């Protein structure tokens, strides 16, 4: 019955947005209230649940999206994006640009959380798309597939790291096996799948569009690449120093502060104002006008993500994920496949990969010991399942849709299929490894 009610809620959301043309934010809130009532959440707890869901998701993404948009706008209007696109195309050529994007996404995705990586890499994707008039989804999906795989499969990301501890797995082995599975998953769901998406219509956010500047007015190559990659450099550096500096050291607390993605984006925004603004003789007034426009362009995205957070919280507070996991525990399926399947169903129902992974972990733990299943492989099986079936209740779905300016239908045909391919290839890889380990 729980699955039926969740399905009805999601169908209602799609009808409101697609058929009746309701903006996703009020549509999410209306469906969230209806879902809460149908799933038995006390009326007195509905409003607090909505507010908590919106607050939780915006607390982690609001600064990232707004500063990321302003940062990306500076990179665009200064000519740095043009310089980066030209240099990358000269280095790898148009035929291999997808693979270059995929490799960058994989490297960046290992230390960075998915939302941070998405916001930081989108300007790079669009710089190539606009400069060389290439299909946006075709170019962007390989990089985003790489970011998604690292988020679901590899420590130090939240869900796989927590599962390693919960299952008493070996962090090093899990990472090693994860790399072995991640590479084919990214290739299949990225460059290979994207070959079929060249004709998907997409007009990405105009925030990242800028007129081509003459070569003499472009910032230098080092300045362009260094400024664009400075968030990644700072996050990787502070993460490494956190591992090396004792927790009791005062310097450790400073690294924790400086390593926060929100603080890093604030730092690089002000650095970009200087390195790509003032040094390029762009007035502060012009820079601020462009930054304000960038924030206006992403305001709708922020509202939509807030709405998805409200629905996720309703599903969490009504115990949907636990109900589903408990009902699926007794299925006659091999343990690794069962872990994947439970995570996939919870992901489809709730929308959050992290919630799906952690909920499945608590339910599948007794099965690991009783069946002698390799805990390292179970981490990866659950991680792969937690990426499956991303759709309208997932904030990542809406970020991709709105940044790339796609219809709901085309977002399902591109983003949702990509995430499901990653999950299926991941499961196949786990089952193959299980034959030899």
TrEMBL record:
Major subcellular location class: membrane
Key word Transmembrane present: yes
Gene Ontology cellular component terms for the protein in this record: plasma membrane
Keyword Transport: yes
Key words, A-Z: Cell membrane, Membrane, Transmembrane, Transmembrane helix, Transport
Membrane topology: Multi-pass membrane protein
Matches recorded under PANTHER family: GNT FAMILY GLUCONATE TRANSPORTER (PTHR30354), HIGH-AFFINITY GLUCONATE TRANSPORTER (PTHR30354:SF22)
Name of the molecule in the record: Gnt-I system high-affinity gluconate transporter
Organism taxonomic ancestry: Bacteria, Pseudomonadati, Bacteroidota, Sphingobacteriia, Sphingobacteriales
């Amino acid at each position: 019955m729980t699955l039926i009610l969740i399905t009805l809620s999601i169908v209602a959301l799609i009808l409101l947005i697609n058929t009746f043309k309701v903006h996703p934010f009020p549509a999410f809130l209306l469906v969230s209230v209806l879902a809460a009532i149908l799933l038995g959440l006390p009326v007195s707890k509905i409003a607090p649940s909505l507010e908590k869901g919106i607050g939780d998701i915006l607390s982690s993404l609001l600064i990232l999206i707004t500063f990321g948009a302003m940062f990306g706008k500076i990179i665009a209007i200064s000519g740095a994006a043009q310089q980066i696109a030209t240099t990358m195309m000269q280095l790898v050529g148009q035929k291999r640009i997808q693979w270059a994007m995929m490799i960058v996404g994989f490297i960046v995705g290992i230390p960075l959380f998915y939302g941070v990586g998405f916001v930081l890499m989108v300007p790079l994707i669009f710089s190539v798309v606009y400069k060389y008039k290439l299909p946006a989804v075709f170019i962007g999906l390989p990089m985003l597939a790489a970011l998604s795989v690292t988020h679901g499969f590899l420590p130090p990301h939240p869900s796989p790291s927590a599962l390693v501890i919960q299952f008493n797995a070996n962090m090093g082995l899990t990472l090693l096996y994860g790399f072995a599975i991640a590479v084919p998953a990214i290739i299949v769901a990225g460059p290979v799948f994207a070959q079929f998406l060249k004709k998907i219509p997409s007009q990405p956010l105009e925030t990242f569009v800028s007129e081509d500047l003459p070569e003499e007015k472009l910032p230098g190559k080092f300045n362009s690449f260094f400024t664009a990659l400075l968030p990644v450099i700072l996050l990787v550096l502070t993460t490494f120093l956190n591992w090396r500096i004792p927790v009791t050291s005062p310097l450790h607390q400073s690294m924790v502060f400086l390593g926060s993605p929100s603080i890093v984006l604030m730092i690089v925004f002000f650095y970009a104002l200087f390195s790509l603004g003032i040094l390029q003789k762009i007035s502060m007034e012009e820079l601020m006008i462009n930054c304000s426009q960038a924030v206006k362009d992403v305001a709708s995205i922020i509202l939509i993500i807030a709405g998805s957070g409200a629905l996720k919280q309703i599903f969490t507070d009504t115990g949907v994920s636990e109900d589903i996991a408990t009902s699926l525990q007794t299925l006659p399926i091999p343990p690794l496949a069962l872990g994947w399947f439970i995570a996939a169903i919870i992901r489809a129902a709730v929308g959050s990969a992290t919630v799906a992974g952690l909920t499945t972990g608590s339910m599948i733990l007794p099965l690991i010991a009783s069946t002698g299943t390799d805990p390292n492989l179970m981490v990866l099986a659950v991680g792969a399942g937690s990426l499956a079936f991303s759709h309208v209740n997932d904030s990542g779905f809406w970020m991709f849709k709105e940044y790339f300016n796609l219809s709901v239908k085309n977002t399902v045909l591109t983003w949702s299929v990509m995430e499901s391919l990653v999950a299926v290839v991941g499961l196949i890889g786990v089952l193959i490894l299980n034959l030899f380990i």
